[in-house]
Each structure stands twice: as C-alpha cells, then as structure tokens.
Amino acid sequence: MVRQPLSPEERERGLRLGASLRHARGSRSMVDVAARAGVSVETLRKIETGRIPTPAFFTVVALADAVGLPVADLCELAASPETSPEASPTTTSRRPVAPAGTPT
C-alpha cells in the first residue's frame, strides 16, 4: 500500500504539534524529555521541527506525558492555528547565537 502525500494542512498541523511540544518542553533538555518518553533524541528533534508531521499516537502520548501536557490539550493546540504557540503572545522567541569570539 502506497502512502499518499500529506496535504499542506496536515504538514501545518505537524508543525504546530512540534512547536507545541517544544514550547511545553521549556528549559528541559531534549535528552531528558526523549529519555522520559522512551524515544530517541533524533525522533524528538524531528517531531519538534515538523520533519515527522504525523508521529505515531503512542509516541505523541509518551511525549505529552514527558512534558506534563494532557494529550487532549496537545491535540487541541496542534489542530487549531489560533491556539498554537506561534500565535500566542506569550511565546518567547529565540535569539540567534553569535559565532564564538564575536562580540555581542
């Protein structure tokens, strides 16, 4: 059976899911959260960046548990562009990191 390509909406939902998990992870390291969820750091990285836009259900459940976010809340955040961390005025943005030795 050949898997059909994802629609733009499905890819966007995957990006929102990843951003929501990243936001919920806060200052915790990827290593810590991945270990608590029983997934590899690379899997977590790919989900957070949207490179795995449709992760397995039990992976999502494990990650939600690892970051202390109810699965229903995570699903709601991923489903609605208005409730995603990108749309939230309280979302903190990341500053670019200057190369070593560059005055800041």
From TrEMBL:
<dbReference type="GO" id="GO:0003677">
    <property type="term" value="F:DNA binding"/>
</dbReference>
<dbReference type="InterPro" id="IPR001387">
    <property type="entry name" value="Cro/C1-type_HTH"/>
</dbReference>
<dbReference type="InterPro" id="IPR010982">
    <property type="entry name" value="Lambda_DNA-bd_dom_sf"/>
</dbReference>
<feature type="domain" description="HTH cro/C1-type">
    <location>
        <begin position="21"/>
        <end position="74"/>
    </location>
</feature>
<dbReference type="Pfam" id="PF13560">
    <property type="entry name" value="HTH_31"/>
</dbReference>
<feature type="region of interest" description="Disordered">
    <location>
        <begin position="80"/>
        <end position="104"/>
    </location>
</feature>
<feature type="compositionally biased region" description="Low complexity">
    <location>
        <begin position="80"/>
        <end position="96"/>
    </location>
</feature>
<protein>
    <submittedName>
        <fullName>Transcriptional regulator with XRE-family HTH domain</fullName>
    </submittedName>
</protein>
